[in-house]
Write a structure and sequence with these properties.
There is one protein chain. By secondary structure, the protein is an alpha/beta fold. The protein folds into 2 domains: 125 residues, 3-Layer(aba) Sandwich (UDP-N-acetylmuramoyl-L-alanine:D-glutamate ligase), CATH 3.40.1190.20; 68 residues, no CATH class. It is 36% helix and 9% strand. A 5-stranded mixed sheet has the order 1-2-3-4-5, with helices on both faces. Helix 3 crosses helix 4 and helix 5 packs across helix 6. It is globular.
Length: 193
Amino acid sequence: MVNNIEVIETLAHTLKDYPEIPIVLDPVMVATSGSRLIDEEALSVLKYNLMPMAHLITPNLHEAALLAEMSIDDEADMITAVARIREFYSGHILIKGGHLGHVSDDLLVEASSEGDRYHWFTQPRVTTENTHGTGCTLSSAIACALTETADISMAVTFAKDYITGALYSGLDLGFGSGPLNHMWATPFKFFNN
């Protein structure tokens, strides 16, 4: 979580030395409870200093709403949010739809010189309370997949399969919203099939 200007500027300054590395940025700005974790000034630095360096951003619905300065209640709003995010960010966008309620559809927008390509990753909700860290794990799995393929859609597909398996495996630790089962399979098993 990068929620203050000093950390954001330090990251941006450091990452400039590694332009060949595809950066996957999960903008953790809103807690699952809906509480905002970043102030307006830090958000501006994130949007205009760090995000432009990212190969892919992976906001959840609350974070995409904050970036787009609108509410997002359905799939149509997700598409509208992409257009607003495009005003300051030109890379790939994955809006995670886990908070839609009825489904868990994610929208991947692939940036290209020919224009944006939209891909929906549709799936039913996995019934589990153990979802803590789902977004962070998805972003990490995408980053891992990008070490094996430059195809962003394929990387997201592999990562989504990994996350879905981690949710379905049914790990139940502690009380409340527990973690996913990260050990159900290694992400790279998908590349060997």
